[in-house]
Amino acid sequence: MSPVSSLSGKTAIVTGSNSGIGLGIVWELARVGADVVLNSFTNRDEDHALAARIADETGVSARYIKADMSDGNECRSLIEQAGVCDILINNAGIQHVSPIDQFPVDKWDAIIAINMNSAFHTTAAALPKMRAAGWGRIVNIASAHGLTASPYKAAYVTAKHGIVGMTKTVALETAQEHITANAICPGYVLTPLVEAQIPNTMAEYEMSREDVIKNVLLARQPSKEFATIAQIGGTTVFLCSETAAQITGTTISLDGGWTAL
Q1: Catalytic residue among 64, 156, 188, 205
Q2: Is 156 one of the annotated active-site residues of the chain?
Q3: Are the CB atoms for 185 and 251 separated by under 8 Å?
């Protein structure tokens, strides 16, 4: 393993990581030697079994810690329970689609809390640990919607724009401390959640799977291809490497050209 790719001796905390993008990031970090802390709001046997499987297959230390990312105190407690945080990946997120004048207040509050406020709390708790260690990496999983907007997604767009802005601020505050903060902005990613939506969308539009993907889900993604979980994980590993030590306060788009339009 090359020094550029090795993260041996580092501990990474990934929020919202027992499935989907977060889990993919955990696997990629573990494969290059980082000890990992998985997280979600559940506390099931399978959550802990997943961490054990990652440890067995990669040889790193892997733990699962339950924490509700809608609760600021639990966000901070996650960092404290982990004990060490060299790498923080803020990934937890939810979505709701509705016109703004009909947007349920509870859905707005939950999206802002989980998608944006959680990153504030975890970052605030993690920075003292990174400063004590003299090194740190913060990678916020934002979205193409952190750089542009779509109708009916007011809370999500607001939260992701906020994440991008906070990323820049943290980068400036830590610019001389060997700590970096960056945001990854994916377009549509073929996660299990998106996969599950395809059959209903096919029925709604009376389209084939191929047409639904190309003309509905990927209508704004010029490549007409999903970003993959592995690509996001690989980009995360790169941003955590020494090769990326001078990359801070920026966004990296994995959106097939969406934000180039």
Answers
A1: 156
A2: yes
A3: yes
